[in-house]
Design goal:
Distance between the termini: 26 Å
Helix content: 40-55%
Number of helices: 15
Order of helices and strands: EHHHEHHEHHEHHEHHHEEEEHEHEEEH
Shape: globular
Strand content: 15-25%
Length: about 450
């Protein structure tokens, strides 16, 4: 098993207007009231210029796998026929070469939410089927230009976040508030874009010998009671938040519960699209952070309600963000669930981690003493390892979120997830207690990093 760290381009690179076109996040952060504290990713943690030192630090920690993302508008500013940005290509070649020189294997995510703004303006972004062709063009560019340097690809990260938050409730870029038909149209196009990218690879670049996967997220659904109706309610939540995206990759169809609840509001795949979707992943990536209690409620469209509390008691300690509770059983349960329902498919944990309540106000040496984060990681890893051993699951990669404190989307810089502290004013990096813990037990297989 390999242990790594995960990051995303917009959250760390900065240099928002250097050899790069505008993304929907460049636009969104300038909208008043969208980001806590008014933060932006325009500077972020300056990884664009500091990456050589950043990878040297990773090497010192013993990190040997980094899941990073390309910035779409740093590669091509638009869609089909757009000129390739040679400066952007050169930047990522240098970045990947630096990784490899420091003994780090790159795992490349093609899309971690930074759609070129021009495509949002031109046709509404992920709500228009043209995005499928444009994403395929972008993917083709990446495959052609980075050929044998990348052996592991993740096409798209967290479609549910893209669509729920970006094109329904509007709390993420591009800030669209719409009805549920837009939500499912977005998800439909995301899935077809993934399938189109994989088809490009298999038709033209298969000889490169890379693996291609897809990364999705969920909040684990734990039945409030053992009653059959509560168990079914939890299953319905898993269908809506996980099966919605994952089932088509295995069966070419949305879950039956969704088809029944939504009817014609749920888009349908053609036979050709079903064939492209089925078997279009070599591994399934899962981002798992937390869990909720779920119970039956016939008044809700999918027949469930949920809460972070049972009899007034939280499902776990709250970790920085309002939605994140420390629920280690979630990780083992979702791995078991995938094993049982998707034929023990190769599964990666592509993200898990936590903020800490009040961490952003810490000062002095306190900023490095994040024992809560260490305990969070320990609990989740123990849960995962127990499930892997018990159910004989195929889980070769696990990635922590995140290596560095960085720009955390709508939370701005108010919540920190890093195992390396970043002083956002000076950009100084210092390894936290959790980073030393990872280095000792996972990254360096027991070798001790000097403090």
């Amino acid at each position: 098993m390999s242990w790594g760290v995960a990051t995303a381009a917009y959250q760390i690179e900065g240099a928002y207007n250097v050899n790069k076109g505008p993304s929907i996040w460049d636009t969104f952060v300038d909208m008043p009231g969208k980001i806590k504290g008014g933060g932006t990713g325009k500077v972020a943690i300056e990884h664009y210029t500091r990456f050589p030192a950043d990878y040297q630090l990773m090497q010192q920690m013993g990190v040997n796998v980094h899941r990073f993302s390309f910035s779409w508008p740093r590669i091509v500013a638009g869609g089909q026929g757009s000129a390739v940005n040679e400066a952007g290509i050169a930047f990522y070649h240098k970045l990947i070469d630096e990784m490899v020189a420091n003994g780090i294997t790159p795992v490349a995510t093609m899309y971690h939410w930074d759609l070129p703004q021009v495509l949002q303006d031109r046709y509404g972004g992920w709500l228009n089927e043209q995005v499928v062709k444009d994403f395929a063009f972008y993917a083709d560019t990446l495959f052609a230009r980075f050929d044998s340097k990348i052996k592991y690809w993740v096409t798209i990260n967290e479609p549910a976040s893209i669509c729920d938050h970006g094109y329904k409730n509007g709390i993420y870029a591009p800030g669209v508030k719409a009805d549920k038909s837009s939500l499912y149209k977005c998800g439909h196009n995301v899935l077809l874009a993934h399938a189109a990218a994989v088809k490009v690879y298999r038709d033209k670049y298969r000889s490169q010998g890379a693996k291609i996967g897809f990364s999705t997220n969920l909040v684990w659904a734990e039945p409030l009671t053992d009653k059959p109706e509560d168990k079914q309610a939890a299953q319905n939540k898993l269908d809506r938040e996980f099966g919605w995206i994952v089932d088509p990759l295995f069966t070419g169809r949305y879950p039956a519960s969704m088809r029944g609840a939504l009817g014609d509001e749920l888009p349908k795949f053609t036979e050709e699209q079903k064939a492209l979707l089925k078997g279009s992943i070599d591994f399934i990536g899962i981002n798992i952070y937390t869990a909720r209690w779920v119970w039956h409620n016939s008044d809700k469209p999918f027949g469930w309600r949920e809460s972070s509390r049972k009899d007034g008691v939280p499902i776990g300690d709250q970790g920085g963000a309002t939605w994140l509770y420390n629920a280690p059983f979630a990780m083992g349960n979702v791995l078991r669930y995938v094993g049982e329902n998707y034929n023990k498919a190769e599964t990666w944990i592509t993200e898990f981690g936590t903020g800490i309540t009040g961490e952003n106000t810490w000062t002095g040496s306190q900023v490095l003493h994040d024992s809560y984060r260490t305990n969070f990681y320990s609990g989740y890893i123990n849960s995962a390892c127990e499930a892997i051993k018990t159910y004989k699951l195929n889980v070769p990669m696990i990635f922590a979120w995140s290596l560095w404190d960085n720009f955390e989307w709508a939370e701005g810089y108010e919540v920190r997830y890093g195992m390396v502290h970043v002083d956002f004013a000076s950009q100084e990096r210092k390894i936290k207690q959790s980073g030393y813990w990872w280095s000792k037990h996972f990254f360096t297989q027991g070798k001790k990093l000097a403090r």
